[in-house]
Amino acid sequence: GGFRIQNRHLRPITHQFPELDFAHLPDGCAIDGEIIVFKDGGPSFNALQRRSQLDAPSRIELASTANPATFVAFDLIYESGGSIADRPLSERRARLERLIESGPHDRLLLTDQIAGAGRAYFEAARDRCLEGVIAKRLDSPYLEDKRTAYWTKIVAWRLEAFEVLGYVKEPHEARVKSIVVGQRDGDGWIHVGRVGGLDDEEKPVLYEALKDMPPLDSPPDRAANGIVWRRTGLACRIRYFPETVTGGLRLPRFKGWLGR
Predict the structure, then answer these.
(1) Looking at residue 146, what is its pLDDT?
(2) What does the angle CA 46 – CA 114 – CA 131 come to, to the nearest 5 degrees?
(3) For residues 233 and 230, what is the distance between their CA atoms, to the nearest angstrom?
(4) What's the DSSP call for residue 105?
């Protein structure tokens, strides 16, 4: 007698995505998947975050047209009111395919799946700046809220060198909270993100080294928001996910200094 969409914390979010109207699906089914907002041919984490933070009905309605979301299904765990979580993935997948094909919807898609050629599939995902792939055993059950060897996330991290353009100070403490990194852009700089992951012992030492360095020439044209721009002459390696829409770094992590 209706449908609902809920997030991983079981909070209903149906009202935030009015374009995901799946009332045509049969009663008694439960589909697991992800909501994605596509930008420039790929998923945008930032665009999805902006959609998820909207509360005003007028803004939600406008966003549903300007930046529509898509539900990408990857598993079927209830069918006709009964759990099929203990059935093998290959069977659940076949049932999910039949369910979606019986009532197609522009905003309801099935995940791509391939058996074998896993390395090539992963490389293709990385080349498209996707987060990676999930390797799943075809005989695996659906185990809610459990991490097992049945499903393995293989992450397509990027590792790249960036210049250190300054830092953010820890409030009320003489230590660095995070470093600010970027790249040269002609006579100026492009700020790509703030990065954590420094050793606790290094944070006060780094603060003492950076605080008296000369100001950065032509700092990025943006609000500082606590950033202290410095001409450091330092460079470091950062592990991250690319965010293709903003050019920034998603989940950046410090992975060592260059030349040290």
Answers:
(1) 78
(2) 20
(3) 9
(4) B
pLDDT at site 223: 56
Answer for the pair 13, 7: CB distance below 8 angstroms, yes or no.
yes
Which 3 state secondary structure label does DSSP give 21?
A: coil
With H, G, I as helix, E, B as strand and everything else as coil, classify residue 174.
coil
Burial of 218 (0-12, 13-18, 19+ CB in 10 A): exposed
Tell me the torsion sign for CA atoms 201, 254, 195, 168: positive
Q: Note the pTM of the prediction, 2 decimals.
A: 0.75
CB-CB contact of 32 with 95 (8 Å): no
The bridge status of strand 176-185 relative to strand 158-169 is antiparallel
Cα 92 from Cα 79, distance rounded (Å): 10
**In angstroms, how far is CA 173 from the centroid of its own chain?**
31
Residue whose entry in the numeric block shows the structure tokens 């990385």: 126
pLDDT at 44: 84
Tens-digit pLDDT profile for residues 171-190: 999 999 999 999 888 888 88
Non-local CB neighbours of 253 within 8 Å, separated by 6+ positions: 195, 196, 197, 238, 239, 240
Inform me whether the pLDDT recorded for 101 exceeds 60.
yes
Q: CB burial class (10 A; 0-12, 13-18, 19+) of residue 170?
A: middle
Contact 2, 23 (CB under 8 A): yes
Strand partners, 240: 158
Longest dimension (CA), the chain: 68
